Amino acid sequence: MEKELLLMLPGPVPMPERVRLAMMRQAINHRSAEFGAAYADCVRVLKTAFGTTNDLMVISGSGTAGMEAAIANVGKDKEIACIVNGKFGERMLKISQRYGKAHEIKSEWGTPIDLAALEARLEQGAQVVTLVHNETSVGIRNPAQEVGKLAKKHDALFIMDGITSIGGDTVEADKWGVDIAITGSQKCLAAPAGLAMVSVSGRAWERLTKNPPYYLDLAAYKKSAAGTPMETPYTPAVPLFLALREACLIIEEEGLAARIARHHRMSGAVQAAAKAWGLSLFPKLDAKHGYSTTVTAVEYPAGVKDDEMRATIKKMGIVIAGGQDHLKGKIFRIGSMGAVSAPEILATLAATQHALKRSGFKVQGDGVAAACEVLG
Amino acid sequence: MEKELLLMLPGPVPMPERVRLAMMRQAINHRSAEFGAAYADCVRVLKTAFGTTNDLMVISGSGTAGMEAAIANVGKDKEIACIVNGKFGERMLKISQRYGKAHEIKSEWGTPIDLAALEARLEQGAQVVTLVHNETSVGIRNPAQEVGKLAKKHDALFIMDGITSIGGDTVEADKWGVDIAITGSQKCLAAPAGLAMVSVSGRAWERLTKNPPYYLDLAAYKKSAAGTPMETPYTPAVPLFLALREACLIIEEEGLAARIARHHRMSGAVQAAAKAWGLSLFPKLDAKHGYSTTVTAVEYPAGVKDDEMRATIKKMGIVIAGGQDHLKGKIFRIGSMGAVSAPEILATLAATQHALKRSGFKVQGDGVAAACEVLG
Question: Do A193 and B238 touch (CB under 8 A)?
């Protein structure tokens, strides 16, 4: 087997060796002090990354399972306002449609969310609001704090998908009034895919709906996590928990503030390169929105073909992402999540610059040099 | 860290080194030919272990997620006959209660299932039947073939939990008329915990209910698995899939028939030891039931305390299981699932024999010697 491809995707992301090695461990009993201690380590660090003192539980399943757990446990038969300006907002909407009366608060993908439409819907009685904090499909950071204020004003529960922000960008779930925050393991935490983390506020516990899916019943997770040792209600994916624990310890050692600053620097380097090339970032921002600091979405210049450009980059051992759904062929996306550092960013930008030229695009300036100015 | 405890539980079970090492791999893209090939390897081997040519899909989640996927996709708002003679039968009942009108077909834990009561319920219009094939809580093997015949006769769908039989005991899902069979990764397959596998018959696909949980929507898994490359609808727990692939390749190399024979031999050795000691196996059988060949449940003799005995055994580095719920203190259980071989069985029986004596029980004969007769 040749060397692994360097994944510069908006997840999954490369894992530090310590994280990978933790999975080699022989099977251990998941009803044991050893497992309980690993789970407790994860929860301690994750609470800091979520910015919460609420209950926090880990589900063996992908981020989508976490999104569904949130909606199914408080949204059943409720009026749900789903803010959509990208693919994962749409997923929240689709899940909400299975449980309650979902109302789409729609903006074009990559444009600011419509806070006025949200407020109108809240005035009409929406009881739950869903938001994707960092919309990786378009590279935009949505104003969670503003949404939290509106939800609180109208006494609605606020569910925030922080799958690609938590651990890489500033998240203050409690300060922002988030009732249920969700993240996934294979994004900014740089752990393997397969775990979802969910925090739940006291207000949300008071408003639990009946009969959520059995496997995603958050009250069962809460009860098991409160035991000694700390447990999960059903058999957990033990190797993934052990890996997540290492990933969390790494976050603690780096320091959350330093980790967030690193994510800003890495995405800043990608943004600087795009600017130097003369390309536009995809999101259209207003004063309340920001560019994602965990994935950068760039518009393709006329004439550059997505498949060809990414194939050229892949030949150099690097994988970047294209656009999803109707954005296929229109944008490319470079992830800067998790453990990513200057060498990976520089290699990716060098390969991208080469591929742009190869595709016939005349870059305005040297993007790699511009990135070095940010990173150096 | 000292050496791992030897887990002789009804799951999780020790994993072969190859399986554990597979998880060390750096993150790979789950939308790639490499991942698709690993998934395809799993499905090819699992179909032989299930005894099916039906569609077979892998869900990132524990066996319970697989049980719920089965019930939620065909049982919603239906009359469901849930056969219960142990803890996992009860779990099937609890899950069924969240989706349809569940009718318990109850027997005392560890006693034969009530086929007459099942038939009566089918005559009253039950549309779905659930059965736990190998009930680990009590060490009994239930007559799946008989249940399949009754379900077919009354045109009901048959959901079979094969979580602790598939890959370790004979399962012929298609011959037995099983519409949805389920297994989990950390049992007879000797892979890490965290994956559930579900096979679905044509008849079951035709009777899908609307709006199952989003994460457990089997039609979405079918669609993604039919693509090139083979995929899952949501991000899979990649390291667990890579480990499962190795576990499946090991099954293929050993040969399924030889693997099943080995499980029979290992459980036969435990049964022989219990008999030699003068202890009774817990299940009460009739001609249609058998002792589990993946876990052996033994009644405690009067005066032997569960906590003390298992503590003595644990001091020797071995973990066996006690009874669950109302059987706590009344039985102990020794698993013989997965990669388990003579050395682990002999060590476990030697430690158990010592612990029985230490607890004041006067064994009739040498259980370790009796086991050697079976194994040698």
Answer: yes
pTM of the predicted model as reported, rounded to 2 decimal places: 0.96
d(CA A125, CA A119): 10
Q: Are strands A195-200 and A180-184 parallel, antiparallel or unpaired?
A: antiparallel
Query: How does residue A4 score in pLDDT terms, banded at 50, 70 and 90?
Result: confident
Residues A31-47 have pLDDT tens digits of 999 999 999 999 999 99
Reduced to 3 states (helix: H, G, I; strand: E, B; else coil), residue B223 is helix
Same domain, A85 and A226: yes
Q: CA-to-CA distance for B227 and B256, rounded, in angstroms?
A: 28
Q: Which residues of A touch B11 (CB under 8 A)?
A: 235
Do residues A289 and A143 make contact, with C-beta atoms less than 8 angstroms apart?
A: yes
Q: Which residue of A has its CA nearest to B211?
A: A98
Verify whether the Cβ–Cβ distance A213 to B4 is below 8 Å.
no
The predicted complex's ipTM stands at: 0.95
CA–CA separation, A237 and B301 (whole Å): 36
Picking from B13, B17, B23, B35 by the largest number of A CB atoms within 10 A of its own CB, the best residue to mutate is: B23
Residue B327 is given by DSSP the state G
Q: Test A60 with B60 for CB contact under 8 angstroms.
A: yes
Domain count, chain B: 2
In the numeric block, the tokens 């959901």 are attached to: B159
Residues A253-262: b if buried by 16+ CB within 10 A, e if exposed? eeebeebbeb
Q: Do A29 and B11 touch (CB under 8 A)?
A: no
Peptide bond into A112 cis (omega under 30): no
In what side-by-side order are the strands of the sheet with B331-335?
Answer: B295-299, B331-335, B321-322
Q: Residue B158 carries which DSSP code?
A: E
DSSP A5: P
Six token digits for residue A258: 């330093």
The CATH number assigned to the domain holding B293 equals 3.90.1150.10
Q: Which residues of chain B lie closer than 8 angstroms to A25, CB-CB?
A: 4, 20
Per residue, the 3-state secondary structure of A55-77, as one string, reads: EEEEEECCHHHHHHHHHHHHCCC
CATH number at residue A106: 3.40.640.10
**Does B14 sit within 8 Å of A26, measured CB to CB?**
yes
Cis before A213 (ω within 30): no
Chain A CB contacts of B319 under 8 Å are 29
In whole angstroms, how far apart are CA B352 and each of A87, B50, B94, B329?
A: 57, 33, 35, 15
Of all residues in chain A, the percent with pLDDT exceeding 90 is 98
Q: Does residue A348 share a domain with residue A322?
A: yes
- Tell which of B34, B76, B235 to mutate to test the A interface (max A CBs under 10 Å): B235
Residues A236 and A260 in one domain: no
Is A63–B9 a contact, with Cβ atoms under 8 angstroms apart?
Answer: no
Contacts of A216 in chain B (CB under 8 A): 213, 215
Q: How far apart are CA A226 and CA A242, in angstroms?
A: 19
Containing domain of residue A281, as a range? 6-11+255-375
Residue with tokens 């998934």: B39
